[in-house]
Fold each of these.
Amino acid sequence: MNKVIINLLFCIVLIGCSAKDDYPGVEYAPNMYHSVPYEPLSQVKDEEIGSWLDSNPNDGHGEFYNSNPYNPYGMTMLEPVPNTVRRGTSLPYRIPKDSLEVAALVNSPIEDSDEVLKEAKILYERFCIHCHGEKGMGDGLVGKVYLGVTAYNSRAVKDKSEGHIFHVITHGKGRMWGHGSQISIEDRWKIVKYVQTLQKQ
Ligand code: HEC
């Protein structure tokens, strides 16, 4: 009797060795491999999965067949609706880093006012003054060492638009680093207003 059991076990082990190509062989504990709930990133199309242990072999598919019947291609997650905007990008400002000319056409959504300029000055002193200097001449304490900080009233910069400056603050330009991750969109537009006053000196 012992011999029969050992032989039988041996046969079972051999069956398990038949795995090749896409066929994984007999799975001894299929529920260790296959999720019963829908897996967001899986796309189960093989209706035979788990049929070896199928509780109801007549329903046309195996116990572990959990393909989503409602979505195309049995996908669990649907593709985003066309033109969906990725979260986390700065709406409504989504102009790519290398599109300074396009950015220059954008107007500030913020109205001019003394209040805004007062706040903007404080922000400028916090984020820009050390390079660009009090009057935007490029002579801040760091600017003197960093070198190459363009003066705002220089020929190259004095006529630059609000959108241009916003883009430079956001993504940087040349040797200036971007500040998009440090300054909120609204505060960036405020700083733009202040820089515009310095350009006109
Ligand atoms: C670490 C020093 C540094 C800081 C901080 C800095 N800048 Fe600059 N900025 C530069 C340098 C250097 C340039 C010249 C970039 C180039 O053309 O290579 C520049 C250029 C500019 C220009 C001219 C862009 C052009 O079109 O040529 C503007 C406008 C400007 N910065 C605004 C700002 C504002 C606003 C802030 C604060 C939010 C700021 N910068 C913070 C170093 C700095």
Amino acid sequence: MSNSPLRILNSLLMAIGLLVSFEPSSVLAQESDTAAQAGQILKRYCFRCHSGDGDDSGYAFDVRQVASLAEQDVIRPGDAKESTLYRLLSSGKMPPRNQPQLPKPSADEAEIVRQWIDAGAPEIPKPKRRDFVGLQETLTSIQKHFSSLAPEDRSNVRYFTLTNLWNDSEIDDAHLRNTRAALSKVLNSLSWSPAIVLPQIVDSKGIVLAIDISRLGWTQEHWQSLLDAYPYGLDYGSHPNTELNRINGDINKLDRKNKLLHLRADWFISTAVKPLLYHKLLYELVLPDLINRPVDPTSPSNPKNMTDRDLEKFLKVNVSANQFADPPRVLRAGFVKSGISGQNRMIEMHRLGSGRIYWKSYDFLASNREAILAEFPLGPSNPANDFNQLAFKHDGGEIIFTLPNGLQGYLLATGAGARLDAGPIEIVGDSLRTSGNQTIVNGLSCIACHRTGMVEPPRDEIREFASVFGDAKRQIEKLYAPHDVMRDEIDKINKAFTQKLEESMAEFLRYDGGPKPDFAYMPEPVAEVSRRFLLEDMNIETVACELDESKPEDLLVLLKRTQELRGLGINVLSRENGAIKRDAWESKSGPTLMQETARVLGFTPVVSRN
Ligand code: HEC
Ligand code: HEC
């Protein structure tokens, strides 16, 4: 295929950057503060394309390395006005203008960069190391909260922890805030409850959060599905730390059913909104038809053979009745070149009532004749369709709908309606690899791009330019909306969606000195957390944090001394800059590499996978 669709796609995918912890009030703070803030701004808006040799820009500078900025002459320390970097940033020319979805630095942020360069561009400080929090402290927070609950509430309360992130010196406070916000967004994106339900911070550092899963409409089976997939489950029953033993015993006395009451937030955020878990948690454990349908063993990725009709029935939206009513109860836009696939595309809005919506896209892969929308604008064919001779034939579709709590749910389907896990890679790819690779998967990838709700589509070309006449032309005018009507509709939907984003995340983004979030510009937190979790190589420090080891040095010594650890294949971590991949760490066939490593340190793996 030609590379232009991918180009366009790449640009769209730049929509999501690193969140910045920056307070305009501290603009005049000390130099190192300004440097830290400037560092975060450059990291947030520029790093994805300017990370040194071999990056997307073709330039050799790395915005994390001040020396490289000076060497490549993109900054003149002491003189912002003469610095290309500042000039491009402050004039809005970088990030590139042809990538409108990309978050841009605000005037305040540009000002911080100016001050930093004018002050001689001092070295950007590394984030400070926080006081180490051991597993014992985390478990104590859980135990305290859990034992304070009424016994009847205990069966529904579960915990998410950020301890490993807290302990990692490479994780800044903004990322911790992002993680709490993303946790709330993911929980609520997997909920059919009418209201947003906020997880509750139950410790003093904001790294243990509790949620009553019944308020999300979850059952014990929802939790069990998570446990079945969890690669980090550990038990402390035979751990040499007797205090850990005791607290663990106390918790177990209060709850005998669950092997694990807490999960890591970073894993949950990155995994629960991707297939298979996303489909199981949102659909298969909830829609009565799917609950009752037997499992099809020949269809492992869609074991209940779910289709878009299953969802439509559950949401009580009758797509063909809406399409073929007179006048039709849909709003359409069709265009030759979609912003995402570079192909012909038609999008269609239905209403679910109470301001909730159901959007469907009609996507065309090949250029078979009926895929030319301008010639066949009046599909899909249907006995109730008076214009079947002008009906397009689509190859797939994407669906976005409003959940009862105002957030969004997603579905990908074939032309025949069968649910899919991922978009066809030859048509669409995600250069930011939000899902862990380039595949666009249902759930996570949609959340990342549709960060502010509906994306304003290209201008409709069917209403004006379709090559049909008479009754067909009049039918088109009823179905395909003028661009301003479409835009107003999308504005309204997105305003309501933004309010719900705010309700589910603002409190966590402002927590602990965080700036007031601006959802129009902000990078998407779930995508941020996922990319960091899935893509960044794990060094000895990350691994130590995930094993409750306060000192990476100690783990290194242990690694050198312990035959058993070396045998597990994590030896590479003892090399300078040695790193392992998340995939390997979570590798599954029985206990994971993480669990095997933890076993050597005195933990017992909890493997409930079936
Ligand atoms: C989407 C990718 C992307 C992002 C994000 C991005 N840039 Fe660029 N940048 C490019 C590309 C591509 C070039 C080279 C082509 C060009 O000059 O347009 C470039 C070139 C540059 C140059 C060199 C220009 C010259 O003439 O020497 C500077 C300086 C620069 N960018 C600064 C920034 C800053 C500052 C940010 C963040 C505020 C940023 N860029 C964000 C893609 C990006
Ligand atoms: C790479 C970014 C990107 C990803 C990933 C993405 N979309 Fe979109 N989506 C768009 C753009 C851009 C549009 C606007 C119409 C167009 O240009 O095709 C859009 C439009 C839509 C529409 C029509 C309503 C609207 O917002 O205009 C639906 C429905 C939709 N997408 C569903 C999905 C689903 C479901 C997923 C996940 C499987 C998904 N999208 C993933 C970029 C994306």
